[in-house]
Amino acid sequence: MKKNALIKGILALVVITILLLGLTGCLSITPPTPTTGTVYITITGFWSSGTHDIYMDGYYLGTTSTASYT
């Protein structure tokens, strides 16, 4: 009787382990980030004003002057 209980316990453990390993591949923990690989840079302002606003993908990054080459 003891041998039968041991075999059932090991079989249950193996089944649970296989289910856990198999189902973890089906879960999406973090959604994938949609990327296109393209960055859109927009520079606004006039040359006479002396400063330009820089935007990358619609987000404001900063201001630069017309004499700056960096």
How do you describe this structure in short?
The protein is 31% helix and 24% strand. It has 70 residues and is α+β, with helices and mostly antiparallel strands.
SSE order, as H and E? HEEE
Helical content band? 25-40%
Strand proportion, as a percent range, falls in 15-25%
What's the alpha carbon Rg, rounded to whole Å? 30 Å
Uncertain runs? none
The span between the termini is 81 Å
Spatial ordering of strands, largest sheet: 1-2-3
Q: How confident is the prediction overall: mean pLDDT?
A: 80
Strand count = 3
Structural class: alpha+beta
| Tally of discrete structural domains | 1
General description of the model:
By secondary structure, the chain is an alpha+beta fold. It has one domain (2-28, 36-65). It contains one helix and three strands. It has one helix spanning 2-23; strands spanning 41-44, 51-56, 59-65. It has a three-stranded antiparallel beta sheet, with no helix packed on it. A hairpin with a 2-residue loop joins strand 2 and strand 3 (59-65). The chain starts with a helix and ends in a 5-residue tail after the last strand. The mean pLDDT is 80.
Itemize the secondary structure elements and their pairings.
Blueprint: H1 2-23, E1 41-44, E2 51-56, E3 59-65
Antiparallel strand pairs: 1-2, 2-3
Task: Offer a few descriptive terms.
70 residues, alpha+beta, three-stranded antiparallel sheet, 3 strands
